[in-house]
Design a protein that fits this description.
single chain; alpha+beta; Immunoglobulin-like; 8-stranded mixed beta sheet; 7-stranded antiparallel beta sheet; 3 helices; 28 strands; 15% helix
Length: 429
Protein backbone atom coordinates (compact mmCIF):
# COMPACT_ATOMS: atom_id res chain seq x y z
CA UNK A 1 0.00 0.00 0.00
CA UNK A 2 0.96 3.62 -0.46
CA UNK A 3 3.23 4.78 2.34
CA UNK A 4 4.30 1.28 3.44
CA UNK A 5 8.08 0.74 3.71
CA UNK A 6 9.72 -1.35 0.93
CA UNK A 7 11.77 -4.44 1.72
CA UNK A 8 15.47 -4.74 0.79
CA UNK A 9 14.76 -6.64 -2.44
CA UNK A 10 12.34 -3.96 -3.60
CA UNK A 11 14.84 -1.22 -2.81
CA UNK A 12 17.56 -3.05 -4.78
CA UNK A 13 15.24 -3.54 -7.77
CA UNK A 14 14.21 0.09 -7.67
CA UNK A 15 17.84 1.24 -7.64
CA UNK A 16 18.69 -1.07 -10.56
CA UNK A 17 15.82 0.29 -12.63
CA UNK A 18 16.85 3.83 -11.78
CA UNK A 19 20.44 3.13 -12.87
CA UNK A 20 19.27 1.55 -16.12
CA UNK A 21 17.09 4.58 -16.81
CA UNK A 22 20.06 6.90 -16.29
CA UNK A 23 22.22 4.81 -18.66
CA UNK A 24 19.51 4.83 -21.33
CA UNK A 25 19.13 8.58 -20.96
CA UNK A 26 22.89 9.05 -21.41
CA UNK A 27 22.91 6.83 -24.50
CA UNK A 28 19.94 8.61 -26.04
CA UNK A 29 21.55 11.98 -25.35
CA UNK A 30 24.77 10.81 -27.00
CA UNK A 31 22.92 9.55 -30.08
CA UNK A 32 21.02 12.82 -30.39
CA UNK A 33 24.24 14.76 -30.03
CA UNK A 34 25.89 12.72 -32.77
CA UNK A 35 23.14 12.36 -35.36
CA UNK A 36 20.07 14.24 -34.25
CA UNK A 37 21.11 17.86 -34.17
CA UNK A 38 19.89 20.22 -36.87
CA UNK A 39 21.64 23.08 -38.55
CA UNK A 40 20.09 26.47 -39.22
CA UNK A 41 19.31 25.22 -42.74
CA UNK A 42 17.13 22.37 -41.40
CA UNK A 43 19.65 19.66 -42.32
CA UNK A 44 20.46 16.87 -39.91
CA UNK A 45 23.92 17.42 -38.49
CA UNK A 46 25.96 14.23 -38.32
CA UNK A 47 29.55 13.36 -37.48
CA UNK A 48 30.14 12.33 -41.09
CA UNK A 49 29.56 15.02 -43.76
CA UNK A 50 26.43 14.57 -45.86
CA UNK A 51 24.97 15.99 -49.06
CA UNK A 52 21.32 16.46 -49.97
CA UNK A 53 19.94 17.37 -53.39
CA UNK A 54 16.64 19.13 -54.10
CA UNK A 55 14.66 20.41 -57.08
CA UNK A 56 12.03 23.14 -56.95
CA UNK A 57 8.48 22.07 -57.78
CA UNK A 58 5.58 24.00 -59.29
CA UNK A 59 4.41 25.02 -55.82
CA UNK A 60 7.80 26.48 -54.90
CA UNK A 61 8.63 23.69 -52.46
CA UNK A 62 11.94 21.82 -52.60
CA UNK A 63 11.76 18.05 -52.99
CA UNK A 64 13.52 15.19 -54.77
CA UNK A 65 11.35 15.24 -57.92
CA UNK A 66 9.43 17.49 -60.28
CA UNK A 67 7.90 17.52 -63.77
CA UNK A 68 8.97 19.86 -66.55
CA UNK A 69 9.13 20.36 -70.31
CA UNK A 70 11.90 20.82 -72.85
CA UNK A 71 13.85 24.07 -72.42
CA UNK A 72 11.92 25.07 -69.27
CA UNK A 73 14.23 26.35 -66.51
CA UNK A 74 14.33 24.24 -63.35
CA UNK A 75 16.06 25.32 -60.11
CA UNK A 76 18.25 22.85 -58.20
CA UNK A 77 19.83 23.07 -54.75
CA UNK A 78 22.60 21.10 -53.04
CA UNK A 79 23.10 21.28 -49.26
CA UNK A 80 26.32 19.80 -47.89
CA UNK A 81 27.77 19.70 -44.37
CA UNK A 82 31.30 19.46 -42.99
CA UNK A 83 32.89 17.17 -40.41
CA UNK A 84 32.22 17.86 -36.76
CA UNK A 85 35.96 18.34 -36.23
CA UNK A 86 36.57 20.27 -39.48
CA UNK A 87 38.45 22.97 -37.62
CA UNK A 88 41.11 20.45 -36.54
CA UNK A 89 42.24 19.68 -40.10
CA UNK A 90 45.32 21.52 -41.40
CA UNK A 91 43.44 22.02 -44.67
CA UNK A 92 39.92 21.02 -45.62
CA UNK A 93 39.67 19.93 -49.29
CA UNK A 94 36.07 19.91 -50.48
CA UNK A 95 34.52 18.88 -53.80
CA UNK A 96 30.91 18.52 -54.96
CA UNK A 97 30.30 16.65 -58.20
CA UNK A 98 26.84 16.86 -59.79
CA UNK A 99 26.20 14.65 -62.82
CA UNK A 100 23.34 15.76 -65.08
CA UNK A 101 21.57 13.19 -67.30
CA UNK A 102 22.04 13.16 -71.07
CA UNK A 103 18.66 14.84 -71.50
CA UNK A 104 19.49 17.86 -69.33
CA UNK A 105 21.85 20.84 -69.61
CA UNK A 106 22.79 23.83 -67.48
CA UNK A 107 21.01 27.09 -68.23
CA UNK A 108 22.78 28.75 -71.19
CA UNK A 109 24.99 25.62 -71.20
CA UNK A 110 27.45 27.34 -68.86
CA UNK A 111 28.09 28.00 -65.17
CA UNK A 112 26.61 31.51 -65.05
CA UNK A 113 23.64 30.36 -62.91
CA UNK A 114 25.78 28.53 -60.34
CA UNK A 115 25.99 30.18 -56.89
CA UNK A 116 27.84 28.85 -53.82
CA UNK A 117 27.35 29.90 -50.20
CA UNK A 118 29.15 28.97 -47.00
CA UNK A 119 26.58 29.61 -44.30
CA UNK A 120 25.34 33.13 -45.21
CA UNK A 121 28.38 34.24 -47.18
CA UNK A 122 28.74 34.06 -50.97
CA UNK A 123 31.93 32.18 -51.89
CA UNK A 124 31.19 31.62 -55.59
CA UNK A 125 34.22 33.56 -56.76
CA UNK A 126 36.53 31.69 -54.38
CA UNK A 127 35.50 28.22 -55.64
CA UNK A 128 36.76 26.34 -58.68
CA UNK A 129 33.66 25.70 -60.83
CA UNK A 130 33.61 23.76 -64.09
CA UNK A 131 31.02 22.16 -66.36
CA UNK A 132 31.92 19.59 -68.97
CA UNK A 133 30.09 16.65 -70.56
CA UNK A 134 27.07 17.05 -68.24
CA UNK A 135 29.26 17.09 -65.10
CA UNK A 136 29.22 20.13 -62.79
CA UNK A 137 32.15 20.31 -60.36
CA UNK A 138 32.50 22.76 -57.44
CA UNK A 139 35.74 22.40 -55.48
CA UNK A 140 38.43 24.02 -53.33
CA UNK A 141 41.72 22.82 -51.87
CA UNK A 142 40.79 24.35 -48.53
CA UNK A 143 37.22 25.24 -47.65
CA UNK A 144 38.41 26.96 -44.48
CA UNK A 145 40.51 29.34 -46.54
CA UNK A 146 37.66 30.72 -48.67
CA UNK A 147 35.89 32.42 -45.79
CA UNK A 148 36.84 34.88 -43.09
CA UNK A 149 35.16 32.72 -40.48
CA UNK A 150 36.57 29.35 -39.46
CA UNK A 151 34.76 26.09 -40.11
CA UNK A 152 32.63 24.60 -37.36
CA UNK A 153 30.34 21.62 -36.96
CA UNK A 154 27.42 23.88 -37.99
CA UNK A 155 28.98 25.02 -41.28
CA UNK A 156 26.84 24.34 -44.35
CA UNK A 157 27.67 24.72 -48.03
CA UNK A 158 24.73 25.50 -50.33
CA UNK A 159 24.94 25.32 -54.12
CA UNK A 160 22.15 26.51 -56.42
CA UNK A 161 21.94 26.35 -60.18
CA UNK A 162 19.45 26.32 -63.04
CA UNK A 163 19.10 23.63 -65.72
CA UNK A 164 16.58 22.48 -68.34
CA UNK A 165 15.54 19.36 -70.20
CA UNK A 166 16.70 18.94 -73.80
CA UNK A 167 15.29 16.99 -76.74
CA UNK A 168 17.33 14.01 -75.54
CA UNK A 169 15.19 13.75 -72.39
CA UNK A 170 13.45 10.55 -71.31
CA UNK A 171 9.64 10.68 -71.13
CA UNK A 172 7.83 8.80 -68.38
CA UNK A 173 9.73 6.50 -66.03
CA UNK A 174 12.52 6.22 -65.01
CA UNK A 175 12.70 9.97 -65.63
CA UNK A 176 15.78 12.15 -65.92
CA UNK A 177 17.94 11.49 -62.87
CA UNK A 178 20.85 13.68 -61.84
CA UNK A 179 23.05 12.74 -58.93
CA UNK A 180 25.51 14.49 -56.64
CA UNK A 181 28.31 13.30 -54.38
CA UNK A 182 30.52 15.09 -51.85
CA UNK A 183 34.23 14.31 -51.51
CA UNK A 184 35.56 15.29 -48.05
CA UNK A 185 38.73 14.72 -45.99
CA UNK A 186 39.35 11.97 -43.43
CA UNK A 187 42.26 11.39 -41.07
CA UNK A 188 44.45 8.34 -41.47
CA UNK A 189 45.28 7.08 -37.99
CA UNK A 190 48.73 5.52 -37.49
CA UNK A 191 50.06 7.27 -34.43
CA UNK A 192 49.59 10.58 -36.21
CA UNK A 193 49.54 13.71 -34.01
CA UNK A 194 46.51 14.85 -36.01
CA UNK A 195 44.66 11.60 -35.46
CA UNK A 196 45.61 11.59 -31.80
CA UNK A 197 43.40 14.65 -31.31
CA UNK A 198 40.35 12.82 -32.67
CA UNK A 199 38.06 11.61 -29.91
CA UNK A 200 36.56 8.14 -29.92
CA UNK A 201 33.13 9.66 -30.67
CA UNK A 202 34.54 10.94 -33.97
CA UNK A 203 35.79 7.52 -35.09
CA UNK A 204 33.80 7.60 -38.40
CA UNK A 205 36.13 10.39 -39.50
CA UNK A 206 39.21 8.23 -38.94
CA UNK A 207 40.47 5.74 -41.50
CA UNK A 208 42.57 2.99 -39.88
CA UNK A 209 45.61 2.03 -41.94
CA UNK A 210 47.87 -0.95 -41.76
CA UNK A 211 50.75 -0.56 -39.33
CA UNK A 212 53.35 -0.70 -42.10
CA UNK A 213 51.74 2.12 -44.15
CA UNK A 214 53.95 5.17 -44.45
CA UNK A 215 51.92 7.98 -42.93
CA UNK A 216 53.24 11.28 -41.65
CA UNK A 217 51.58 14.54 -40.67
CA UNK A 218 51.99 15.70 -44.27
CA UNK A 219 49.80 12.96 -45.73
CA UNK A 220 47.71 11.95 -42.76
CA UNK A 221 44.61 13.49 -44.42
CA UNK A 222 43.03 11.77 -47.42
CA UNK A 223 39.53 11.97 -48.90
CA UNK A 224 36.46 9.80 -49.23
CA UNK A 225 32.95 10.19 -50.69
CA UNK A 226 29.44 10.43 -49.31
CA UNK A 227 26.51 8.44 -50.56
CA UNK A 228 24.94 9.74 -53.76
CA UNK A 229 22.04 12.22 -53.53
CA UNK A 230 19.55 12.23 -56.43
CA UNK A 231 16.65 14.15 -57.92
CA UNK A 232 14.39 13.13 -60.79
CA UNK A 233 12.75 15.35 -63.41
CA UNK A 234 9.83 13.75 -65.24
CA UNK A 235 8.33 14.82 -68.56
CA UNK A 236 5.46 13.65 -70.79
CA UNK A 237 4.76 12.79 -74.43
CA UNK A 238 1.63 13.68 -76.42
CA UNK A 239 0.16 11.99 -79.49
CA UNK A 240 -2.91 13.42 -81.25
CA UNK A 241 -4.65 11.05 -83.66
CA UNK A 242 -7.14 12.36 -86.24
CA UNK A 243 -9.61 9.82 -87.65
CA UNK A 244 -12.64 9.99 -89.98
CA UNK A 245 -16.11 9.86 -88.47
CA UNK A 246 -17.23 7.64 -91.37
CA UNK A 247 -14.88 4.67 -91.13
CA UNK A 248 -12.22 5.56 -88.58
CA UNK A 249 -9.50 5.92 -91.21
CA UNK A 250 -6.58 8.32 -90.55
CA UNK A 251 -7.05 11.96 -91.53
CA UNK A 252 -3.73 13.37 -92.80
CA UNK A 253 -3.20 17.03 -93.54
CA UNK A 254 -5.14 18.54 -90.61
CA UNK A 255 -3.30 21.51 -89.08
CA UNK A 256 -3.44 22.80 -85.51
CA UNK A 257 -1.68 24.82 -82.82
CA UNK A 258 -1.20 23.88 -79.15
CA UNK A 259 -1.21 26.70 -76.59
CA UNK A 260 -0.04 26.30 -72.98
CA UNK A 261 -1.87 27.96 -70.10
CA UNK A 262 0.76 30.71 -69.87
CA UNK A 263 -0.10 31.82 -73.42
CA UNK A 264 2.99 30.39 -75.10
CA UNK A 265 2.81 27.82 -77.89
CA UNK A 266 4.24 24.30 -78.05
CA UNK A 267 6.99 24.07 -80.66
CA UNK A 268 8.06 21.13 -82.81
CA UNK A 269 10.72 20.07 -80.25
CA UNK A 270 8.31 20.27 -77.28
CA UNK A 271 9.61 23.60 -76.01
CA UNK A 272 7.40 26.67 -75.52
CA UNK A 273 7.65 29.84 -77.61
CA UNK A 274 5.76 33.07 -78.19
CA UNK A 275 5.24 32.34 -81.90
CA UNK A 276 2.50 29.97 -83.04
CA UNK A 277 3.75 26.67 -84.43
CA UNK A 278 1.39 24.85 -86.77
CA UNK A 279 1.47 21.06 -86.54
CA UNK A 280 0.25 18.93 -89.47
CA UNK A 281 -1.01 15.36 -89.12
CA UNK A 282 1.12 12.83 -91.00
CA UNK A 283 -0.04 10.03 -93.31
CA UNK A 284 -1.15 8.06 -90.23
CA UNK A 285 -3.18 11.03 -88.97
CA UNK A 286 -0.75 11.57 -86.07
CA UNK A 287 1.04 14.43 -84.36
CA UNK A 288 3.67 13.33 -81.82
CA UNK A 289 5.50 15.59 -79.36
CA UNK A 290 8.02 14.61 -76.67
CA UNK A 291 9.01 16.60 -73.60
CA UNK A 292 5.90 18.50 -72.50
CA UNK A 293 5.08 19.42 -68.92
CA UNK A 294 1.88 18.63 -67.06
CA UNK A 295 -0.74 21.38 -67.19
CA UNK A 296 -3.59 22.62 -69.38
CA UNK A 297 -3.28 22.99 -73.16
CA UNK A 298 -5.64 24.33 -75.82
CA UNK A 299 -5.58 22.45 -79.12
CA UNK A 300 -6.85 24.70 -81.92
CA UNK A 301 -7.48 23.18 -85.36
CA UNK A 302 -6.56 25.80 -87.94
CA UNK A 303 -7.64 23.89 -91.06
CA UNK A 304 -9.20 20.58 -92.05
CA UNK A 305 -8.46 18.54 -95.19
CA UNK A 306 -10.87 18.70 -98.12
CA UNK A 307 -14.15 17.04 -97.24
CA UNK A 308 -13.86 17.50 -93.46
CA UNK A 309 -14.91 20.13 -90.94
CA UNK A 310 -12.64 21.71 -88.36
CA UNK A 311 -13.47 21.10 -84.72
CA UNK A 312 -13.81 23.68 -81.99
CA UNK A 313 -10.98 24.06 -79.48
CA UNK A 314 -10.06 21.02 -77.42
CA UNK A 315 -8.88 21.48 -73.82
CA UNK A 316 -6.35 18.93 -72.52
CA UNK A 317 -5.51 18.79 -68.81
CA UNK A 318 -2.66 16.51 -67.73
CA UNK A 319 -1.36 15.77 -64.24
CA UNK A 320 0.86 13.19 -62.54
CA UNK A 321 0.67 11.09 -59.40
CA UNK A 322 3.85 10.39 -57.50
CA UNK A 323 4.62 8.14 -54.57
CA UNK A 324 6.10 9.48 -51.33
CA UNK A 325 9.49 8.51 -52.73
CA UNK A 326 8.83 10.71 -55.76
CA UNK A 327 8.48 7.82 -58.21
CA UNK A 328 5.99 8.45 -61.01
CA UNK A 329 3.12 6.00 -60.56
CA UNK A 330 0.30 7.40 -62.73
CA UNK A 331 -0.64 10.03 -65.29
CA UNK A 332 -4.11 11.58 -65.38
CA UNK A 333 -5.50 13.27 -68.50
CA UNK A 334 -8.89 14.68 -69.45
CA UNK A 335 -10.17 16.39 -72.61
CA UNK A 336 -13.20 18.50 -73.39
CA UNK A 337 -14.58 20.27 -76.48
CA UNK A 338 -14.02 19.12 -80.02
CA UNK A 339 -17.46 19.66 -81.58
CA UNK A 340 -17.69 20.89 -85.19
CA UNK A 341 -16.61 24.46 -85.54
CA UNK A 342 -19.53 26.90 -85.69
CA UNK A 343 -22.38 24.42 -86.19
CA UNK A 344 -24.81 22.59 -83.95
CA UNK A 345 -24.09 18.89 -83.86
CA UNK A 346 -27.60 17.87 -84.85
CA UNK A 347 -29.52 20.71 -86.48
CA UNK A 348 -27.80 20.55 -89.88
CA UNK A 349 -27.28 16.83 -90.05
CA UNK A 350 -23.53 16.97 -89.35
CA UNK A 351 -21.93 13.96 -87.74
CA UNK A 352 -20.88 14.94 -84.22
CA UNK A 353 -17.12 14.97 -83.66
CA UNK A 354 -15.82 12.81 -80.82
CA UNK A 355 -12.75 13.35 -78.64
CA UNK A 356 -11.23 11.12 -76.01
CA UNK A 357 -8.10 9.88 -74.28
CA UNK A 358 -7.39 6.46 -75.74
CA UNK A 359 -4.17 5.58 -73.95
CA UNK A 360 -2.12 6.66 -70.93
CA UNK A 361 1.21 4.95 -70.26
CA UNK A 362 3.34 6.11 -67.29
CA UNK A 363 6.29 4.02 -68.49
CA UNK A 364 6.63 5.94 -71.74
CA UNK A 365 4.89 9.06 -70.40
CA UNK A 366 2.47 8.90 -73.36
CA UNK A 367 -0.93 10.58 -73.47
CA UNK A 368 -2.79 9.52 -76.64
CA UNK A 369 -5.80 11.59 -77.72
CA UNK A 370 -8.10 10.59 -80.56
CA UNK A 371 -10.12 13.27 -82.36
CA UNK A 372 -12.84 12.20 -84.77
CA UNK A 373 -13.09 14.67 -87.64
CA UNK A 374 -16.65 15.06 -89.00
CA UNK A 375 -17.20 14.63 -92.73
CA UNK A 376 -18.80 17.58 -94.49
CA UNK A 377 -21.93 16.07 -96.16
CA UNK A 378 -21.98 18.87 -98.72
CA UNK A 379 -18.41 18.05 -99.71
CA UNK A 380 -17.46 14.54 -98.60
CA UNK A 381 -13.83 13.51 -98.66
CA UNK A 382 -12.61 12.99 -102.21
CA UNK A 383 -15.23 15.24 -103.85
CA UNK A 384 -15.13 18.99 -104.64
CA UNK A 385 -15.19 21.23 -101.58
CA UNK A 386 -18.18 23.36 -100.57
CA UNK A 387 -18.39 26.54 -102.65
CA UNK A 388 -16.60 25.15 -105.68
CA UNK A 389 -18.35 25.33 -109.07
CA UNK A 390 -18.24 21.99 -110.87
CA UNK A 391 -17.35 22.27 -114.58
CA UNK A 392 -19.63 20.85 -117.30
CA UNK A 393 -18.91 17.30 -118.50
CA UNK A 394 -16.44 16.99 -121.32
CA UNK A 395 -17.54 14.27 -123.88
CA UNK A 396 -14.59 14.66 -126.23
CA UNK A 397 -14.22 13.11 -129.71
CA UNK A 398 -16.98 10.56 -129.18
CA UNK A 399 -19.63 13.25 -128.71
CA UNK A 400 -18.43 15.18 -131.76
CA UNK A 401 -18.49 12.06 -133.91
CA UNK A 402 -22.01 11.20 -132.86
CA UNK A 403 -23.15 14.75 -133.70
CA UNK A 404 -21.64 14.58 -137.18
CA UNK A 405 -23.13 11.15 -137.79
CA UNK A 406 -26.57 12.46 -136.78
CA UNK A 407 -26.29 15.39 -139.15
CA UNK A 408 -25.26 13.04 -142.00
CA UNK A 409 -28.24 10.79 -141.39
CA UNK A 410 -30.59 13.76 -141.39
CA UNK A 411 -29.14 15.02 -144.69
CA UNK A 412 -29.53 11.59 -146.24
CA UNK A 413 -33.17 11.40 -145.17
CA UNK A 414 -33.89 14.85 -146.61
CA UNK A 415 -32.14 14.00 -149.88
CA UNK A 416 -34.04 10.73 -150.19
CA UNK A 417 -37.33 12.45 -149.54
CA UNK A 418 -36.64 15.03 -152.25
CA UNK A 419 -35.70 12.28 -154.72
CA UNK A 420 -38.91 10.36 -154.11
CA UNK A 421 -40.99 13.53 -154.54
CA UNK A 422 -39.33 14.31 -157.87
CA UNK A 423 -39.92 10.80 -159.08
CA UNK A 424 -43.57 10.92 -158.09
CA UNK A 425 -44.10 14.22 -159.94
CA UNK A 426 -42.59 12.78 -163.17
CA UNK A 427 -44.93 9.77 -163.14
CA UNK A 428 -47.95 12.04 -162.78
CA UNK A 429 -47.14 13.81 -166.02
Amino acid sequence: MLGEPMDCASVKTHKTQHALAIVCLILITAVIALIGAKTAFGEEKTVIPTIRKYVEGDDGDWSTWTTSGVDVDVDFKLVATVAENASEFPTYPYEITDTLPDGMALDSDDISSVRVQLNDGDITEQMDISYDDHILTISTDDLAGVSDSSLSEDSVVTVTYRAHLTTACICGTPGNVNSAVLTYPVINQVDSPIAARVAVSKAPLVRLLAADDDVSDGNAVTTTETKTAETTTYTLALRISKVSSVNGSPVPGATMTIRAEDGRYVQRDGSLGTMEHEFTTDTDGHIEINGIDKGTYTIHETSAPSGYLTTSDIILTASTENADSGALVAIDATVSGGEEDGVDGDSNGFVESGTGVTKIDPTSGLIDIQITDPVNPSSPAGSPSVGSTPSLPQTGATAAGLALAGCGIMLCVIALAKRNKTKKDANSD
